[in-house]
Amino acid sequence: MKETNSYQNQIQNPPKSRKVGGKRFFWSFLLGLLLSVGLAIPFVQNFYKVQQITAGFKPNTALSYTAGRIGVDKIKSHQVLLAKEMTSLTKKLDEFIPKQNYLIINTSGNDFTLMNNREVIRLGKCSTGSYTLLKGKNKQQWIFKTPRGMLKILRKMKDPVWKKPDWAFIEEGLPVPSANHPSRFDYGTLGDYSLHLGDGYMIHGTLYKRFLGMPVTHGCIRIGDDDLEAIFNALPVGSKVYIY
User: Fold this and answer.
1) pLDDT reported for residue 56
2) Which pLDDT value is given to residue 5?
């Protein structure tokens, strides 16, 4: 009987420590709930914003459309200006292209292109300057390079004779003869044709065809027999030769 009454008293009047513990649990639970909700709100807001963006949501449709329209108009305006500039540059370029045949020499690749306006007539290999430095007496020296720029054919010759300059003898270790000594005149070395560009530079044939495509000359442009004949026949005196 005493045990029963004691149990009932415990139920009706629980110990203070249990009440305090219950209150602590309640407030801890409430605080945790509030913190969870507080942390969840920004997450939900950000998630909603992402959903809006991925769904193509535009906060200010009118403003976005106007900005996009301005961007498109600028692009179209630039396209029109670019087209006009291209047309102008093309016209200027056409003015520089010779009306008759002309020749292009590429000293890096050692090849040539025979052109008529914008049409390619013939392509082939050639040899250009070796850039070798030769030193003589009295501080004389020669650099064997092909001149670059726009040149003109000043003279054409069949079966040309080469009058050897001083450096040709110095290179071979021979004494330099007088200006018109017979040893200066060399027949056959230049091939069947020569086209003179001025300052001693020529387009001519070669006995060393195996070296075509290589920089081995003293500055002249050497070309194979068939290509040389085609160029000789295609280019009249005054034709332009572009060397780069």
Assistant:
1) 52
2) 46
